[in-house]
Design a protein that fits this description.
By secondary structure, the protein is α/β, with parallel strands linked by helices. It has two domains: 120 residues, Response regulator (Rossmann fold, 3-Layer(aba) Sandwich); 104 residues, Winged helix-like DNA-binding domain superfamily/Winged helix DNA-binding domain (Arc Repressor Mutant, subunit A, Orthogonal Bundle). Helices cover 42% and strands 20% of the residues. A hairpin with a 2-residue loop joins strand 6 and strand 7.
Length: 234
């Protein structure tokens, strides 16, 4: 199995070197960049398996870079930043990042978060479930390939969006709380305001609407979300 390739963009050399050192020890292949423009240029030539982005960098900042990347790729993205307000964290998640860490941070915890995201991505691929296609309403969720289609049209979801949709579909007819979604999907990120789940649900709903899907994700006010039997095919 080939090594996972991780790109790091941060204008602080010491931060880049620290992260690189820990990732190399874990067996990852690493490329580092002093700004977002250089990373984006390289990514267009060679895709990476994960990106670690600082927000405040010369040229294109981390949030703008995240937005640009989400137009063309669902690569997992972790944002690291000195900006530690709740608004900044929510903004990072809304723009499509899979996690958000504030500086100073523990490189050991960063490694654990990276491994968790890769486990989420590989979970269905390595699963030995016999029925690999889950059908809900007019949506088909392939748990092996992580492909979601509606009436034959592919819907592009980020890894975290896919796992959220899959989790709700696997728990059909059961209300799933925001806290449960945070713990199951973000793990260490349970300290984030639960509105992070609402923002991701909005993105999923928007993508479903764009393909005219009949699948509805119900909001249970003050609690969480649910997909009911009314949305199940057949």
């Amino acid at each position: 199995m080939s090594k996972k390739l991780i790109y790091i963009a941060d204008d602080e050399a010491k931060i880049r070197q620290l992260i690189e050192m820990f990732l190399l020890k874990e067996g990852y292949e690493v490329n580092t960049f002093s700004d977002g423009d250089k990373l984006l240029e390289k990514f267009k030539i060679q895709k990476a398996d994960m990106l670690i982005l600082d927000i405040m960098m010369p040229g294109i900042d981390g949030l703008a870079l995240c937005t640009e990347l989400r137009k063309v790729s669902d690569v997992p993205i972790i944002i690291i930043s000195a900006k530690d307000s709740e608004t900044d964290k929510i903004a990072g998640l809304m723009l499509g990042s899979d996690d958000y860490m504030t500086k100073p941070f523990s490189p050991v915890e960063l490694v654990l978060r990276i491994k968790k995201i890769f486990r989420l991505i590989d979970f269905e691929k390595n699963s030995r479930v016999n029925n690999n296609i889950l059908e809900v309403s007019d949506v088909k969720i392939n748990k092996d390939s992580k492909v979601v289609t509606c009436k034959g049209e592919k819907i592009k979801f980020t890894p975290m969006e896919f796992n959220l949709l899959l989790y709700l579909a696997q728990n059909i007819n059961r209300g799933v709380s925001r806290d449960e979604l945070l713990n199951k999907l973000w793990g260490f990120y349970s300290e984030v305001d639960t509105r992070a789940t609402d923002d991701m649900i909005k993105r999923i709903r928007k993508k479903l609407v764009e393909v005219n899907s009949l699948l509805k994700i119900e909001t249970i006010w003050g609690f969480g979300f649910m997909i009911s039997d009314e949305n199940r095919e057949g």
